Amino acid sequence: MDEEYDAIILGTGLKECVLSGLLSVSGKKVLHMDRNGYYGGACASMYLEQLFEHFGKKDCDVSGYGKSRNWNVDLIPKFLMADGVLVKLLIFTGVTRYLEFKQVDGSYVYKAGKVHKVPGTEAEALSSSLMGIFEKRRFRNLLQFAFKYEENIPSTHEGLDLTKVTMQQLYEKYSLDANVRDFVGHAIALYRDDNYITEPALATINRMKLYFNSIAKYQKSPYLYPLYGLGELPQGFARLSAIYGGTYMLNKPFEGITRAEDGSVTGVTSEGETAKCKIVVADPSYFPEKCKKAGQVVRAICLLQHPVPNTGNSQSSQIIIPQNQVGRKSDIYVLCVSFAHNVSAKDWYVALVSTTVETDNPEAELEPGMRLLGPVSEKFVSVSDLYVPTDDGKKDNIYVSASFDATTHFETTCEDIIKIYESITGHPFDFSELDKKLEEFKNLTEG
Fold first, then answer.
1. 177: helix, coil or strand?
2. Which of 120, 237, 256, 344 has the greatest CB tally within 10 Å of its CB?
3. What is the distance of C-alpha 224 from the center of its chain?
4. What CATH architecture is 4-53+78-86+227-291+388-430?
5. pLDDT tens figures, 32-84
6. 392 with 423: CB under 8 angstroms?
7. What is the pTM of this model?
């Protein structure tokens, strides 16, 4: 502990482990500490007995669920977009060598009391029960415009500057009704609410491209999921950091920091010893005074003996319930993985229902999603405070990540990772060397 480090990372959540790996690869000397005895922090994966104990059900009989070690249940399950930032980070750093992925079987959206597959191709769009015949044509026209639109090529703009034209105006141009807007905005562009409608349309068009480019990688859906659960991701980045000289210490209590006269951090103290450093990166639990509460997320982890109904017997799936379909301000998310991903015993499924809390009865807010699951063998409900940092960390060199939101994908998580990395380094993250590695990753991924 008497050494000096470029960076000390506190917490082994995914964000902290990714940043640890990126900083190590860039030549920084990194010390990574966690007060817990396991990797993953708030997004850890747990064996069955650990899961029951974590939720205060230690005395429950788990004999009917198969071997405990056959379970790897994520506390905060999320999918990876096949062409998204996290996959690019995995490829960029080479962490893919430590992981195996399986494609998620299907992406669905809830409309008028029924579950519908989200169109993944133009042909699917034309045959989808989500839209009438005229809406299908209008939707196809929007897709064709989105696919060809390039920000730096004016000839693709059709006279529309999407840095100024709002998404509302673009919807109106193509005469798309409220139902189509719902699944475009929430199941394809993956917005959590409707605030995006009054914003410039370019961000939504780019999100639509990300969705369909991700589908194009492996066809069935845009999502991937690691075998043995998300706990493999932080451990993969931890291995990467170790290869580049990073040091990891679990079960290390955090006893505070030391500062210079100007207030900048100079070290981290644990068990009476202080390790010197230039910067600190931490999850919100280490520096609550540097965070503000931005709401709550309610989640229900459910153990099922069957696939989620109306998803074609899929072994993995996502269903998004747009806010307008159930009279809410924010979406409800349903995610399912299974024994096919080595996260449960044979023929068992793990489903998550999550949303942003809007009332004083959070669990009741999950009911529209819970009704889609069918019989539930066991349920674990949690309500988590959502914290965001109050500053960018540049003043005192303490960079705090935001809590995990209710979404079932990693795009918002990666936005936070990249923002912190760019704040630390002072320059944009460069993905320019990725192209030559993309095909290699595709060959390593199960179809």
1. coil
2. 237
3. 11
4. 3-Layer(bba) Sandwich (3.50)
5. 999 988 878 888 899 999 999 999 998 888 889 999 889 999 999 899 999 88
6. yes
7. 0.88
